[in-house]
Every structure is written in C-alpha cells, then in structure tokens.
TrEMBL record:
Assembly and binders: Monomer.
Cofactor(s) this protein requires: Mg(2+)
Lineage: Bacteria, Bacillati, Bacillota, Bacilli, Bacillales
Main subcellular location: cytoplasm
Species of provenance: Fictibacillus fluitans
Binding site residues for Mg(2+): 15
GO MF: shikimate kinase activity
Pathway given in the UniProt record: Metabolic intermediate biosynthesis; chorismate biosynthesis; chorismate from D-erythrose 4-phosphate and phosphoenolpyruvate: step 5/7
Binding site for ATP: 11-16, 116
The protein's name in its UniProt record: Shikimate kinase
Length: 175
C-alpha cells in the first residue's frame, strides 16, 4: 500500500493528526522533521541557525527520497511541499493529503510555541505572505482536508474513513 503524505502550513496539525491517523490505519508514522533531527544530530532550529535554510531544504529532499514508499503515514515539514521535485516524488509514490487550516487558527495554536524558526507571531503580515505564497503548492495534492474546528481525533477518523472507502484508491493491502 502506498504511503500517505500529510502536507500543510506550520501548525496545521500534520504531526498531531498524522500520529492519530497512523493508529487508525495501523501504520507506522514517520515525521520528516524528526528524521532530519535524528539523522543530522541537530534540532531543526539549530540547522536553520548554524547551516542555513538552503542546507535544511537539501536535507529534507534527501530524507524524503530515503523514506519507505509503502505502508506508512509520513508527516512532512511545513515547507517540504514547496519544492516541485518533492511534490512530484510524493504524488508519484503515495497519497498526498493537504491539511488545510486558516492562518487565524494557526496563530492561535502556535501562541506559546517558539520552536519554528520561520514562524513569528509578531510578524503577522510576513506570515500572511508566506502562507498565501505556499497555498498553490499545498493544493498540488490528491486531496484537501479542511481541518476547520475539527478536533485531531475527529480529523484522523474522517481521513481514515475516506481512505477506507477507497475513494482515493486506498486498499489497506499491506504489500
Ligand atoms: N485539529 C486541531 N485542533 C486543535 N489543535 C490542534 C489541531 N491540530 C494540531 N493542533 C495543535 O496545534 C499545534 C501544532 O500542531 P502540529 O505540531 O501537529 O502541527 P504541524 O502541522 O505538524 O506543524 P509543523 O509543520 O510546524 O511541524 C500543537 O500544539 C497541536 O496540539
Ligand atoms: O514551514 C516551514 O518551512 C518549516 C516547517 C517546520 O515543520 C520545519 O520543517 C521547519 O521549521 C520549516
């Protein structure tokens, strides 16, 4: 069975919903940010600060190509889908689901969180620009899932239910 890739802006819930989706589908969950940190032995914020964003993007592309291409839920970093090559890889190898969420909701969710080097609560206009510039890349996917006010458990159940109804060609066959 092809992997399921979750994409979307920082704070859209990829990691949170992805881990619950893994439970729903009985599949392992792999987070690209986490694999990068393990592989390169540094936190994402350290890579940005010490090596720069371009190096981080190279790590992201390299890691994506190394990940399993079956039987997994893969939660991606918020900027991974910006690269046309990364998008093509995901579209060719799996089901790409964009977790769509309003920027207001994201500001609310990330109020207390300062772990994301590219997210800054104080720079609302810059965040708006970044968010809007990325929407076309996220929309280049198999399915847009509007998270709205949906609780993470509910979101995971709804995604799993649709996958199981085979509307996306998902079979659940673990070959
Ligand atoms: N559907 C939801 N409803 C309410 N809170 C949520 C929801 N999804 C995620 N959150 C909360 O929002 C915060 C960010 O979520 P999460 O880390 O899953 O986002 P992400 O898309 O993986 O972000 P990033 O791309 O930056 O890693 C967390 O505190 C999480 O608990
Ligand atoms: O949106 C982004 O560009 C990022 C999102 C995070 O998941 C991390 O991958 C990193 O902080 C960059």
């Amino acid at each position: 069975m092809k992997p399921i890739y979750l994409t979307g802006f920082m704070g859209s819930g990829k990691t949170t919903v992805g881990s619950l989706l893994g439970e729903e589908l009985d599949l392992p969950v792999i987070d690209t940010d986490h694999v990068i940190e393990e592989t390169y032995g540094k936190r994402v914020a350290e890579i940005f600060a010490e090596d720069g964003e371009a190096v981080f993007r190279r790590y992201e592309a390299a890691i994506l190509a190394e990940l399993p291409t079956k039987n997994a839920v893969i939660t991606t970093g918020g900027g991974l889908a910006v690269s046309a090559d990364n998008r093509k890889f995901m579209l060719d190898h799996g089901f790409v689901i964009f977790l769509s969420c309003s920027l207001e909701t994201i500001f609310e969710r990330l109020k207390e969180d300062t772990s994301r080097p590219l997210f800054n609560q104080e720079k609302k206009k810059d965040m708006q620009k970044l968010y809007e510039s990325r929407l076309p890349f996220y929309r280049d996917c198999h399915w847009v899932f509007e998270t709205g006010e949906c609780h993470p458990e509910e979101a995971a159940k709804r995604i799993a239910a649709r996958l199981k109804r085979s509307e996306l060609g998902y079979t659940g066959d673990k070959r």
